[in-house]
Amino acid sequence: MAKPSGSICNLDCTYCFYLEKEHLYPNRKLNWKMNLATVEAFIKQQIDAQHGAEVVIAWQGGEPTLLGLDFFKAAMLFVDKHAREKTVSHTMQTNGILLDNAWCSFFKKNDFLIGISIDGPEEMHDKYRLTRSGKPTHARVLEAILLLQEHQVEFNTLTVVSDFNVKSPLKLYHYLKSIGSNNIQFIPLVERISNQADENGLYLISPQSNLASTVTSWSVKPQEFGKFLAEIFTEWIKHDIGTVYIQTFEQAFAAWAKMPAIICVFAPRCGSNFALEANGDLYACDHYVYPEYKLGNIHETSIKAMNESSSNLAFGKSKSSSLTKKCQQCEFKFACYGGCPKHRFTINENGEPGHNYLCGAYEMFFKSSNKNLKLMSNLWERGHSPMLIKEILK
User: Fold this and answer.
1) What pLDDT sits at residue 210?
2) Which residues have a Cβ under 8 Å from the Cβ of 78 and sit 6 or more positions away?
3) Tens-digit pLDDT profile for residues 196-234
4) In whole angstroms, how large is the CA radius of gyration of the chain?
5) What are phi and psi of 355, to 5 degrees?
6) Residue 117 and residue 111: Cα distance in Å, rounded?
7) How far apart are CA 212 and CA 223, in angstroms?
8) For residue 89, which of 144, 25, 154, 151 has the smallest C-alpha distance?
9) Label partner for 38 (CA 20 to 30 A): which of 98, 174, 196, 226?
10) Across the strands, what pairs with 192?
11) For residue 366, is pLDDT > 80?
């Protein structure tokens, strides 16, 4: 994920974990934009690093549209220069605030898939997603979605599930459908707070820190998130399977059907979901942008070489090697693999440290959906569409 604006953003979301990264680059406010030499190096190396004929370039932030349209037009010229015989497509994650007709025309022309952040209807979205002056943003995000639809730009929605909107799962789900989202990602909000500040006065801490910690007040509670997923899954499987795509449910079906994981969170190992900072620094993961997880800089070492490095390989393997005994013996290990290591900071009932904070949520969801997921996978194995489950459940 390329972050051409680093952590710089035009919003000040209460729960944003990335704003703390300003401390890693103290001069960023003066020189925060990725320069064109770095853009070209990234695009060339990203294309060269792919073994297949298709390449995906993901633009994220902070807020990438702050770079301006000319920046991305220049990036497209670099793609044309270095693509050779490969097909290059693009995704962009944005809050939508700056989108207008010019942006949407550009997205359509260059076949961008746009991820729009929206946390539900007005009262849910505006709880935490505010401007730097504390103003609500929901209405402006809706305008952006309407523009994308008008220009026939493909988009999906990313919803951060917090302590607030988790309490109204079906209201949230029906709302996302009502605004035309048929491709939905739910991202559980889990952020730790250290009981002691570091040398920068920073309280949010590295995923593997041993500092005593608790979660922020806006973090989702495991049992509430499990109930959230279970309720929406029941609604989805009866009415929307095959027409609305929910990433967590697609992943669960893949696990039950013995297919490879489609989300790194539920894969057997981590790896190669890199985060590229504006100056060319490359980190092992978007959630591990800390000095100890820096793999190098693309102006000194290629992305391909860093991907194959011993540091990256060790990072990937550490996910499975650090599983608790409870996780290793769990009936749903095949579907979860301990979840994201970032969330392994609790102590389970057996007294084992390094347990996943969201374990209870996933266990509740997998247990409640197990019967129907088995039925879907059985249909699949017999050459039938899993969507037939809608008829069976009538």
Assistant:
1) 46
2) 39, 40, 43, 44
3) 445 544 444 555 554 445 888 999 999 999 999 999 999
4) 21
5) -90, 150
6) 19
7) 22
8) 154
9) 98
10) 215
11) yes
pTM beyond 0.90: the answer is: yes
In the 3-class helix/strand/coil scheme, how is the chain assigned residue by residue?
CECCCCCCCCECCCCCCHHHHHHCCCCCCCCCCCCHHHHHHHHHHHHHHCCCCEEEEEECCCCHHHHCHHHHHHHHHHHHHHCCCCEEEEEEEECCCCCCHHHHHHHHHCCEEEEEECCCCHHHHHHHCEECCCCECHHHHHHHHHHHHHCCCCEEEEEEECCCHHHCHHHHHHHHHHCCCCEEEEEECCCEEECCCCCCCCCCCCCCCCCCEEECCCCCCHHHHHHHHHHHHHHHHHHCECCEEEHHHHHHHHHHCCCCCCCHHHCCCCCCECEECCCCEEECEHHHCCHHHEEEECCCCCHHHHHCCHHHHHHHHHHHHCCCHHHHHCCCHHHHCCCCHHHEEECCCCCCCCEECCHHHHHHHHHHHHHHHHHHHHHHHCCCCHHHHHHHCC
Q: According to the model, what pLDDT value does residue 23 have?
A: 60
Beta bridge partners of 184: 157, 246
Q: Which residues are catalytic?
A: 286
Tokens read off for 268: 């057997």
Q: How would you classify the pairing of strands 155-161 and 183-188?
A: parallel
Of residues 231, 213, 256, the one with CA closest to residue 171: 231
